[in-house]
Amino acid sequence: MTEPSGRSLRLSPTQLKNADIALAKFGSKSDLAAQLQMSRTTINKFFKGEPVQRKQFLGICKKLKLKWEPDDEQVQEKGKPPNSLSDPTLESLKDDIDALVQEVRSRLHDDIQRLHSTMPLWGIDRCVPLGDLFVDVNILEELSSSRKSEYDDLCQDFMNNPSHRGLDRIGLGKEQKRVPGLEVLAKNTNLMVVGKPGSGKTTYLQRVVRECNAGNLQAHRIPVLIRLRNFVEDGREVAYSLERYLKECWRLSDAETQLIFDRGRSLVLLDGLDEVTGEDGKNIAKEIKRFARIYPQVQVIVTCRTQSQESRFEKFDYVEVADFNESQVRSFSEHWFKTVMGDESGGLAKAREFLEQLFLEANKPIRELTITPILLSLTCAVFHQTGKFYSKRSKLYEEGLELLLEQWDKSREIDRDEIYRDLSLERKLELLSFLAVKKFEQEQYVLFEQAEIEGYIAEFLGIGQRDSRVVLRAMEAQHGLLIERSQKVWSFSHLTFQEYLITRQFLAKCNPSSINDSILNELTSHVQDRHWREVFLLAVEMLPKADVLLTAMKQKIDNLVISDIRVQKFLSQLHQLALWIDAPYKAASVRALCFDLGVDFTTNTKGTLSRIFKITRILDYELYPGLFRSRQ
Q1: What is the pLDDT of residue 161?
Q2: CB < 8 Å & 24+ apart, contacts of 571-579
Q3: 3-class SS letters over 175-199
Q4: SS3 call for 65
Q5: Looking at the predicted structure, is the pLDDT value of residue 331 above 90?
Q6: CA distance 455 to 462
Q7: Backbone angles phi, psi at 309, to 5 degrees
Q8: For the CA atoms of 510, 512, 518, 523, what is the dihedral angle to 10 degrees?
Q9: Bridge pairing between strands 8-9 and 52-53
């Protein structure tokens, strides 16, 4: 036998015959491959006299009880420089690494499928098959927080938004281009995938590792998915060395592992960088940077909550998991109900009912929450259990906040180490409510400049500006309720949550039984501000008895009407017009109908009455015969 290089061994021509005899006594090549857990390719190469990895070569010899010794030809050539006759060709080396990669892929295939084939589903006490629920994620190739925009321009952009609620369109002019999650891997670059909590980062990596494992994606690489919060314990045993850790996972020699890295034949997926904190977190981040620098041919993908890492990773492209669009919301909802109910037709019927309710105009604030998988799952679970949305929307908002602020991290056994961690759930809600009110009372009620929001945090917690910056980043990383829309420009992730927190803050401080309560009067002072509409609706819903609040709102409106001559004139004309209508309804109802139809008093009375007549005839045919009486 000869050894053409320090890495591979092969049978000499004189030993091939002995190997064939040994195999005949042992069994077939298939039996040999199965017992050694090697590929048929490796076994065939051994019996053809082609180079085989040293470890595998010696394993085959041992199994066949072949004695390995350098032959006379090798002894004679010892000490001479290798030549083209004794060295393996480039093609044989390529064949060698291909066989090694495929052998490891084959050996790990079932374990990868088993470990990454299911996912937890919020609101359901069991894991579900990933393939049954997964919806392809979209990737934004430019981070929102990396955009450079003038604060005043962003404010103007928001105020010009007709809906005044589409926060994700701020400063974009037009919607950012979305790239399918698997397509972005084709660039073969290292990726830092950031996104809100519960945006689907983990399931995205699960999809990638399964597609690679199945040979549908990068079949020339060995896929590995490491949950970094588990690597804290496992990594300590190997001094956080990814090379040593993967060598043990793959059960390869140092040289074989090194060859795989040198040739870039691995796809390394690292999930949850934000979930490792303290010194362990710093060590792991440092190791990832070192590994990516030393092995540029290996593709490394890391997930992290939005911008929570302290320093930027060189040689990594930063991309962001996009919020669900309407098509994804519909697809996820259908998958959710089919999976949970275990009945395709029944699940689709329930999903149609859910989506019909979700896309009603009245449920637009709820629909705003469903742009991330975690909050969409919560909404689906509520509908599944009750057959409707909560009669009080505030209950859904309360559960959503509790889920993001506390339960999501707890379910994933994540322990944070910043100042913010030590605050109770109630104290976190108080801080968020304080920030929500501070901004909502201003003319531009959504966007914070960074110095502004840091100042509010410092004021509430009684800390310095530097510590308040740490708290702000912790709030963004841990629950995503505050996000950086552009560089140093912040807002709440959902206007719906901001409105709920404002309502919560006022109701916690006011005396709802006293019409002269100062906090109640402060709230009703905003009754003429259009963007406070949802706050008043939530307040009426959340109070055990809303009589006092409604009375206070009426008094405020009456005072506004009394002091405005134009409004007085309008109401007088409306009253006169209503007198022309002879109908079995209360006068207030008739006036409300005229007002709702948008009566234009600048036109002649007959034209106005004709318009009302036509519409009310459609609305109530019985009203038609005596609707009007002539006035002389």
Answers
A1: 64
A2: 573/601, 574/599, 577/601, 577/605, 577/608, 577/609
A3: CCCEEECCHHHHHCCEEEEEECCCC
A4: coil
A5: yes
A6: 10
A7: -75, 150
A8: 80
A9: antiparallel
Which one is predicted more confidently, 243 or 44? 243
Give start and end residues of each alpha helix (H) in 510-604: 518-524, 533-542, 547-562, 565-579, 587-596
What pLDDT, on a 0 to 100 scale, did the predictor assign at position 145?
65
423 vs 76, more confident: 423
In whole angstroms, give the CA distance from residue 507 to residue 502.
9
For β-strands 482-486 and 489-492, DSSP reports them as antiparallel
Closest CA to 194 of 581, 584, 477, 479: 477
Bin 66: left if φ > 0, else alpha if -120 < ψ < 50, else beta. Answer: beta
The pLDDT of residue 608 is above 60: no
Give 400's Cβ-side CA count (13 Å radius): 33
Task: Measure Cα distances from 595 to 83, 381, 580 in Å.
Answer: 98, 40, 14
Which tokens belong to 309? Answer: 């890492």
Residue 349 amino acid letter: A
CA pair distance 194, 252, nearest whole angstrom? 33
Diameter of the chain measured on Cα atoms: 131
What gap in Å lies between CA 616 and CA 18, rounded to an integer?
Answer: 103
Closest CA to 232 of 287, 187, 185: 287
What percent of the chain clears pLDDT 90, i.e. is strictly above it? Answer: 30
- For 507-519, b where at least 16 C-beta lie within 10 A, e where not — what string? beebebeeeebeb
Angle (deg, nearest 10), helices 254-262 and 242-250: 110
> What pLDDT shows up at residue 6?
46
- How far, CA to CA in Å, does 187 sit from each of 31, 207, 263, 300, 624? 41, 18, 17, 12, 69
Alpha helices by DSSP H, listed for 251-392, are 254-262, 278-294, 326-341, 344-358, 364-367, 373-386
Q: How far apart are CA 466 and CA 454, in angstroms?
A: 9
Tokens of 179: 């790239």
What is the pLDDT, as a whole number, of residue 190?
Answer: 95
* Per-position DSSP letters for 123-176, written without gaps between them: TSSSEEEHHHH----EEESS-GGG----HHHHHHHHHT-TTS--GGGTTTSSPP
End-to-end CA distance of the chain: 123
Name the DSSP class of 622. G
408 has pLDDT over 70:
no
Identify the pLDDT of residue 415: 58
Unique residue bearing structure tokens 């005596």:
626
Nearest CA to 54 out of 298, 261, 62, 15 is that of 62
Residues in contact with 534: Cβ distance below 8 Å, sequence separation at least 6, in sequence order? 365, 496, 499
2 within 8 A of 70, measured Cβ to Cβ: yes
Q: How far apart are CA 123 and CA 407, in angstroms?
A: 11
Residue 506 near residue 514 (C-beta atoms within 8 A)? no
In terms of Cβ atoms closer than 10 Å to its own Cβ (0-12, 13-18, 19+), residue 249 is middle
- 175-190 b/e (C-beta count within 10 Å ≥ 16 → b): ebeebebbebbeeeeb
Average pLDDT, the chain: 80
Contact of 81 with 122, CB cutoff 8 Å? no
